[in-house]
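Reposting from the mailing list since nobody answered there.

I have sequence plus structure tokens for a pair of proteins and want to know whether others read the tokens the same way I do. The first protein:
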Amino acid sequence: MYEPEIRDFSPGGINSPSRTAGFESEAFPRLSHELEPTMSTQSAPDSMAGQSPVRRRATRSRTNTFPTVDVSPSQPEWHPGQEPGLDPSKPYGGRTASFNLHEDCQITLVDFSQEKIVKREFNNDEFVRFMDMEQEEWIKCRWINVNGLSWDVIQAIGKKKKLHRLAIEDMVNLNNRTKADWYTDHTYVVLTLQKLVHLHPDKDSDSESDSDDEQDITLEAPRKRKRGPFRKALYKFMKRRNSNVTPIDALAGGVHDTTKEFITGHTDGVQSSPVQKLRTLQRYHGGPNQERAAHMEKISPLTQKKLAVSAEQVSIFLTADNTVISFFENSADDIEEPILHRLSNSDTILRKSCDASMVMQAVIDAVIDLAIPVTSAYQDIIGSLELDVLTNPNIKHTTSLYVVTSEITTLRNFINPIANLINSLRDHKNVGQRGDVQKAASAVKISQMAQTYLGDVEDHIVLITESLDQLRRNADGMIDLIFNTISAYQNESMKQLTIVTIIFLPLSFLTGYFGMNFTDMPSIEHNEKYFWQIALPVAFVVILFLMRDMIVWWVKRTIQRRGISRSRKGRERRESRQRGLKEKRNR
């Protein structure tokens, strides 16, 4: 298990990008074939286009070359060796070409003090224009909540708050681990949000069509094919017979589409939650194999309940001017609603403290609270599978248990590092005056109150992690129980076959003996009674000889159990007499 890395990028820090290495140029003698710089001093983005500032050595024509493989097809704007980070002051962040990062964001900006609160909602263009305005003096704390990732919004916030280019690059890249980076005047926190969602089939999916030319639901791209009269009749019969299964298959076919990188659903337990495009645990950090992710989602026990677990990256900036900036991919409304309800009440801790670190604590706490229904859903799944395994163990149950174990392990790997992240935030002991932007120092502050309440969040994380560990152990134990039970059934069957074989072995031998076609054989002149007079004693002796160990074990076990039973009954009688004597004395 990895732990979140805490990097100090303050001036003079060991990881500071402004820190220069002190070495003398004489230590590196100039080589004859060293590249000679040109007279051009014009700075340009990290690109290879245009006039290069250095001369490149000519490539030999006889050298065999191989084309470079694009190891990150989902990020075509990335290439090895480029300048790290995204600079919001440059077009496209200083990259060679524009990258497709634009969507209509839902932006909520909340300014509040102990006496007043103002909530504003913007679209992309309105928010970019609002960022050019100066902050009013009455504002003690500001929270900017962005639902969606769009470069125009990120660039506007990055310019205004002077966010570090490395933090912006990490926010745009949706393949980060849980961590906290400390910069000069702001802190960047990234973690994973997990929530339980109800699945909705795609409206454009043909899997819900009731026509005769209905598409077959497969993992590949659906193809239409006409059914013959016999197939139509058989399909209608099976549909009526398995009416409770067909909607689930249709739902899985419409939601888990290999041609898409998302599923459609709404948050479980949230009133009037909109249908969103979400990524499941299998698709989040799951690699480029979409067929594998879709198949794992389709056979998941949660899908049978029309449920799924979505995961997305959450980025939070805590600045030195008492501002919190949170970025969500889709679930900003789920976090925003309870926090706005607390801010609207002047008696809450958030309003009284006017502390940005407390707002960040509230966001992290809401993210963890969304994971609690996920744990309850898996507890229900494990309980149902446990009943099936105990009453009717089947090898098919191991597939469901494997999928559940895989999802629980992935979920735990996302939640457990958040505990280390919270410990790193609590260990940051710089404390300043709360709610005073003008007196804020250049360093980021985690107030003592926020450190205290972060401990409560850590308790929730530990509770969820322990529950997931227990569920995973139960699933592993059920898999072992299935195989042990099946092996025991097989051993019992072999035991019964062995007993039957031992019983009929002497009979078969004698039958073969008396069935010989010998001319001179006086023993066959007797009647049937003569055969059984020989067969039964021989069979009895053979059974005693071959099953002697089993018979001895059975006799010993019977004697021991009878002795234990007599001892237990005697102890119960003595205890009953003693209780009777005590009752008489008490009277």
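The second protein, same order (residues first, tokens after):
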Amino acid sequence: MKFDEKGSIIDLEAKVVYSNICCYCGACGAFCTEYISYENGTPITKQKCFEIHGACFDFCPRTFLPVLEMERELFGDVRNDSELGYYTSIVTAQASDAAIAAKGQNGSVVTALLIYLMEKGKIDAACVSKNSLDEPWKPEPLVATTKEEILEGAGSNYEQCPTIMGVGEALANGSKNIAMVGLPCHIQAMRKIQLSKAFDVGGERVKYAIGLLCTETFDRDLLHAKLAEMGIKAEDVKKFDIGEGKFKVFTEDGMTTEKIATMKSCMRDGCKVCYDFAAELADISVGSIGSEEGWNTVIVRSKAGKELIDEAKKAGAIKVKPLGDASIKSVKDLASRKKSENIDNIVQMAGATKILHLAVKPQELSLLLSAEK
């Protein structure tokens, strides 16, 4: 599709970086390594670029995001649900392999699907994140090309990672069939890359975009300060998790919890203008909310997503069962809460006629955002 808005790296800096709404997805730097690098979770321009229309501006999910037009391109229709976006079904699933289930998060569905795709030869690279070996719990992009590398990226980290940098690396390395896993902002960026008519970087080689349900990510310094308040060193943490309204930290001494409401003080500023909880532009979206312990909630959206779930189930890679209405409602409620909590920030930044980067006609707003406050 042809995007109506155009901008340069200077426009990107003014509209996104200096406005403090950058989500640190990695899209700008992934395809402009000559000019853009990252420091402390922020894009830094190493030298001036004089292009009037830049890929960095086109690909950024915070510059503009014509969501409903993108849905028509991706799914052939617009959303049937204002909270969760367009989808065809919602199920609950888990990895069939106990070893995979033990390595991943909750039902380990994402890990199981990536391994299934890799072993069947359907992908030659999986763009995920892993924890840095140099700094505890610092996520960094990983281009996995083996089952072992996919397992290395299993589990959850609640800091932001410039995942699209990994996609750029995989494309530059010549990968032909790629799966990427990301938060809603990563998925938005990936779809803009794929749909852009102005800049062709090979986005069509990303065959699967797997989204993760997300309320927010945490600023690294603020999170580590919060851990210190809890009497925990980052290097002692074995696992993080969120559930039952609590932020859970696991160490050798056991589990320590903090009310998730108090963790809002650690939220990245860029997350405060995000409307998307359910990775609404993904092929499938995966999370834990709504499912029983050891299972994942899976929102199936695209034809590719449906085929992936059906084929992986048939092959025995995952177990799938229906998700009840009450459980689905809990997912919708959390999605609605994120929209309602952030809508004031979004409107304040941009005004009502153009909701920040969402680029939606006023008469279509009811399709996109829940009106409840």
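Reply #1 (J.P.):
I read it the same way you do. The chain has 13 helices and 13 strands.
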